[in-house]
Amino acid sequence: MSHNHCHSHHASNLHILKISFYLITVFMVVEAIVGYVSGSLALLADAGHMLNDSFSLGLAWLAIRLSTKHSQTALCLTLINALSLIFVAVWILWEAVERFQHPVPILNSAMLVVSFVGLAVNLIVAWWMLKGDSHNLNLQAALAHVFADIFGSVAVIVAGILLWLFGWQWADPLASSIVAVIIALSGINITKATLSAYRHNTTSGQNF
Which of 8, 83, 127, 184 has its CA 20 to 30 A from that of 1? Predict the structure, then answer.
């Protein structure tokens, strides 16, 4: 009975990650295109994080596939996932500093529309992923990416409203910086959890 229960969780997690991957990847492409056309660094930053999400979901899927026989490999993939978050955060902060110094015109209407759609997509994905195994470290890592995106979408929406109402160009790089901090914190927390699991030398595979 216990084996069947674990197998059910395993299959469910894989299905959840597959659907989430498709949703995130499709919207990431849309957000990147609109971010580039509109000139919004906040949208590009969020698209960059969603690209990282796609990578994260792919790694999580592979890690769960390997977890039953290769738990240490699964942990290594989770660690790569977490470190990639930190890398993206540093890149966004670097770009935000440039934007603070050299503001660029932004097509605000497109920024607002896409950020609202992005929030909706991330909420749907988070709701879907919360149906999975809450004890699975890889699923936790992927879900952390999605929650970070939810906060990121809210930051972009606020920046868009400030631009629309007051014309504050600095709101866009500020939103980008907030997204970067959220991403970095997620990466640090997942890295700590992964290293802790590695130190405890958990080899059963059921929690990865």
Answer: 127
C-alpha–C-alpha distance, residues 206 and 61, integer Å? 14
Q: How would residue 208 be classed by pLDDT, with cut points 50, 70 and 90?
A: very low
Burial 154-190 (b: 16+ CB within 10 A, else e): bbbbbbbbbbeeeeebebbbbbbbbbbebbbebbeeb
Alpha-helix residue ranges (DSSP H) falling in 39-136: 41-67, 71-101, 108-129
pTM of the model as a whole: 0.69
Task: With CA atoms as reference, report the closest residue to 152 among 85, 94, 103.
Answer: 85
Query: Are 101 and 41 within 8 A, CB to CB?
Result: no
CA atoms of 149 and 143, how far apart (whole Å): 10
Q: Residue 131 in contact with residue 16, Cβ under 8 Å?
A: yes
